[in-house]
Amino acid sequence: MAKNTICIWYDKDAEAAARFYAETFPDSKVHAVHRAPSDYPSGKKGDVLTVDFTVAGVRCIGLNGGTAFKQTEAFSFQIATDDQHETDRYWNAIVGNGGQESACGWCKDKWGVSWQITPRTLTEAMAAGGDEAKRAFEAMMDMKKIDVATIDKARRG
Does pTM surpass 0.90? Predict the structure, then answer.
């Protein structure tokens, strides 16, 4: 077990979420599914309790904890993309599987987990600073899914 692992709370669908992530993102895998050894407040003996998985190289544990806590944008996965094709692929997979669009490259999957699908050109523009960053930032503010060509045009002025 890794020294530091992200634990993500799900109502009851940690296994389905982990399998979706493994199918969608490279360097992702479901490692193990653990069942409850006895009844617990939000489930019964034999129900899936935790799922060990990796999503885009990050080790995680999905916990089926019930409805006590909800996902918020305070936690998100940020996925760096190289081009519009990759941006579209991840965005469409998340939104098209019962998720929802948000603003500035953010979306939520159907389990409520937030994702930032962020083209590297946008990150590079922010790192460049100055007028280039300002133009790219202002262009991004009007977007849901990031349009790479529009960000590249804004970077050039």
Answer: yes
8 Å CB contact between 62 and 53: yes
How far apart CA 104 and CA 141 sit, in angstroms, is 6
Please name the fold of domain 1-69: 2,3-Dihydroxybiphenyl 1,2-Dioxygenase; domain 1 (3.10.180)
Name which CATH class applies to 71-157: alpha beta
Question: Of 44, 63, 43, nearest to 53 (Cα)?
Answer: 63
Per-residue pLDDT tens over the stretch 113-140: 999 999 999 999 999 999 999 999 999 9
Q: In the chain, where are the structural domains located?
A: 1-69, 71-157
Compute CA 39 distance to the chain's CA centroid, rounded to the nearest angstrom.
30
Spatial distance between the Cα atoms of 76 and 149, rounded to a whole number of angstroms: 25
